Amino acid sequence: MSQTASVWVVLLVALAAANLPFFNDRLFGVVPLATRPKPLAVRLAELVVLYFAAGGVGLLFESRAGQIAPQGWEFYAVTGALFIVLAFPGFTWRYLMKHRHG
Known about the structure:
Keywords: Membrane, Transmembrane, Transmembrane helix. InterPro entries: UCP019883. By secondary structure, this protein is mainly α. It has helices spanning 3-23, 40-65, 73-86, 88-96; strands at residues 26-27, 31-32. Helix 1 (3-23) packs antiparallel against helix 2. The longest helix is centred in the middle third of the chain and has 26 residues, at 40-65. The protein is elongated.
């Protein structure tokens, strides 16, 4: 896979992972929870775990392309902020839009 394709795959994985906690009431989209709806704290904890999972996919692609570059705290601050921005559509859909409960 080319490096350009790898970048797009990582971005799409990050977009899906960032919105997953907000589009369902299951833990990581798989495990049903006793509380319904899922509390915001659980959604945020999922967001942190999925951030590292998406980062792991990026690390896998980087290791296949060559040597892994060392990263400082600035890298994690920027990618964390990007991940939160990618989660905005899901957050908006879950908390800022009105839904009919029929």
